[in-house]
Amino acid sequence: MRTVTLATQKGGSGKSTLAACLAVAAHGDGLRTAVLDSDPQGSLDKWANRRDAEAPHVEKCEPHELDAKIKALRKLGFGLCLIDTAGVQNTAVVPAIQVADLCLVPVKPTLTDLEAAVPTAKQLRDRKKQFAFVMSQCFGNANRLNDVAAALLKHGEVAPANVFQRVDYPDALTGGLGVTEYNPSGAAAKEVRLLWAWLRRVIGEQE
């Protein structure tokens, strides 16, 4: 089982949305997937309660429980575990980073988000963790996004699939769905499938 943690020091970056949509995409791709919600806000736990489908598996988890929960999921035969974390800089995020095979750092294309991403990247490098930035809630033209990507590349890898501001994301989560379920032919679903295809390749190379 591979464990992927979504972590950043800034709230509102889209971690929970990405975790939910990636989990649904992974499950739809045939990978038995679990989500551990270690964010005190419990956004993913609430999302799961709105779902009719039982998969992907979602459960609340305190940071100190992560190691035991992951071992249990591995014994149950899960292939992927996604961990959502609080968007703050505190010691509660450290256990989620420690258990991760890969960390995803969502970053909105704004100066404040770029500035917040740098210390997150440093923390991950100091812990010798593989990580990649994911440009999230994107807006603006290609030149703007290319400039942001170039700035991020100075600090780490950038996922080759951007996630844009689209109404399908909040609408899907409101209905307890991922965007690939809510509007399979929409632009948001295509973005998530591209991001998942890249992520599956990356975690597959770790095996």
TrEMBL record:
Sequence ranges assigned to domain CobQ/CobB/MinD/ParA nucleotide binding in this UniProt record: 5-155
Please name the PANTHER family in this protein's record. COBQ_COBB_MIND_PARA NUCLEOTIDE BINDING DOMAIN-CONTAINING PROTEIN, P-LOOP CONTAINING NUCLEOSIDE TRIPHOSPHATE HYDROLASE
Q: What is this protein called?
A: ParA family protein
